[in-house]
Design a protein that fits this description.
It is found in: Periplasm. The protein contains 20 helices and twelve strands. By secondary structure, the protein is α/β, with parallel strands linked by helices. The N terminus is likely disordered.
């Protein structure tokens, strides 16, 4: 499987005219600018730096790398687009969710089909397809981005806290209503009685500045079989069943707060905050759109800068006391099919060094370069290629096995891949705004849903 992926990529490079084995002398003076989102872990960034070093040695092209925090990438990129001084290659964890579809529609992105089509067979299902977007200037669909990695929804639980409350993992119900009742009505009062501390059973992200809140809410919508758009991106929200199921999803999501089962601060949480609450053990469980929570403790276990005691605590947490689990079955009793969010990098249409930028992308996408970068994130990201998905890395421990099982069980893309205007809605976080209308402003759930539907129609209709 590995050789197939590499072979496909070699064909892609040749087809795009990107062979660089004997770089011409003029190419040695070339410098490309690359912007990349800062990784969570040193091993992730180290793998990227190693690939850049290999690329420079092989091609004679110098890479000027700048890394930025996720929250800074889109503002910096928008400013660069406005000024006409864009990087030659750019990657951000938030491009796909909040901007890529819009930029493709406006003709601001370079078509990368010459790289990606020849290696199409190397990609796993529901990965490459997410970069196939419509350009309203060129009046065509094409691959306006390169898939690097993907993520999905997982549940993280402190096993020792669950046991302290008098329960074990096998006690956790698989039925939807029973599941949430278990955490709020059984675990929370029991853990508070056992510890004498104001611990909350659930960490339910609700902040408007949190992508976790909209990704988690999509899982609740999927539990109620809410389908907001058809395969052509047409809105379906005028269907009374869609409205009714949206009301059920929003009621269940906000009930956790109404019942006092999630910290009051969860209405203003940003992306790191449910992680922090979990690490601080003020919550027993949370849902998160990667296993970055568990991976943080693995990183601690291997961090030479920490004390032996801290490394031992990280090892114990990762190997023994943190559980990576799935959501319960839907209210109708069937399993949830999870959303996958495929993270993509971009080349802009007005980049100065597009040919060399494509060389870099093609090099980065080679199996021996892409795999160390994805695995360097310690399981936080899942591969987009079938060869990397078969890597022994994903069978190395219970957390990664859970991720592998969830992805290989089948996923479905987000609505913004079918209707680019959902990137605007995600950027506004209309989902978290609806939650806050209910829990902070005491608006009835059905009214909050009607407001949400009105905004969906206004933006994406």
């Amino acid at each position: 499987m590995r050789s197939k992926g590499i072979g496909a990529l070699s064909i892609a490079i040749a087809a795009a005219g990107l062979l660089y084995a004997a770089a011409p002398a003029f190419a040695q003076q070339k410098t490309i600018t690359v912007w990349f989102g800062k990784g969570f872990y040193k091993s992730e960034d180290d793998a990227l730096l190693e690939t850049i070093k290999k690329f420079e040695a092989k091609t004679g092209i110098k890479v000027e790398l700048s890394q930025y925090a996720i929250q800074d990438m889109i503002p910096k990129t928008v400013a660069a687009l406005d000024s006409g001084t864009v990087p030659d290659v750019a990657y951000s964890d938030s491009y796909d969710v909040q901007a890529q579809g819009k930029w493709a529609y406006e003709g601001k992105l370079e078509d990368l089909s010459d790289i990606l089509l020849p290696m199409k067979g190397a990609f796993a299902p529901n990965t490459l397809e997410t970069a196939l977007l419509y350009n309203d200037v060129a009046k065509k669909k094409a691959y306006y981005g390169f898939p690097l990695k993907q993520q999905s929804m997982h549940v993280q639980i402190w096993q020792d806290m669950l046991e302290q409350a008098g329960f074990k993992q096998s006690d956790i119900p698989t039925k939807w209503e029973d599941y949430w009742s278990f955490w709020c009505d059984k675990v929370q009062p029991a853990i508070r009685k056992a510890t004498g501390q104001r611990i909350y059973a659930v960490g339910q992200p609700m902040g408007v500045e949190s992508t976790d809140s909209f990704q988690s809410f999509y899982t609740f919508m999927d539990a109620y079989n809410v389908k907001l758009v058809d395969d052509d991106g047409k809105l379906l929200v005028d269907d009374p069943k869609v409205r009714a199921n949206l009301i059920s999803a929003l009621k269940d999501y906000t009930d956790t707060y109404v019942r006092g089962c999630t910290p009051p601060s969860s209405t203003t949480w940003k992306d790191p905050d449910n992680n922090v609450a979990f690490h601080n053990r003020t919550i027993v469980m949370t849902h998160n759109f990667t296993i970055s929570i568990a991976a943080k403790w693995l990183d601690d276990a291997n961090n030479p800068a920490l004390t032996p005691e801290q490394r031992a605590a990280g090892k114990k947490a990762y190997e023994e006391t943190i559980i990576t689990a799935s959501f319960p079955n839907k209210p109708d009793g069937t399993p949830i099919k999870y959303r996958s969010d495929v993270k993509t990098g971009l080349i802009f249409a007005n980049a100065k060094n597009k040919a060399e930028g494509k060389q870099f992308v093609a090099f980065l996408m080679q199996e021996e370069n892409l795999r160390p970068y994805v695995e360097g994130a310690l399981g936080r990201w899942f591969p987009v290629t079938t060869a990397s998905q078969a890597s022994p890395f994903w069978q190395a421990d219970r957390h990664r096995k859970a991720v592998h099982a969830q992805f290989t069980g089948g996923t479905t893309p987000f609505d913004f891949t079918k209707n680019w205007k959902f990137t605007i809605l995600n950027n506004e976080n209309v989902w978290a705004k609806a939650m806050n209308r209910v829990v902070s402003e005491k608006v009835p759930v059905d009214k909050a849903v009607d407001e949400l539907i009105a905004r969906l129609k206004q933006v994406a209709g």
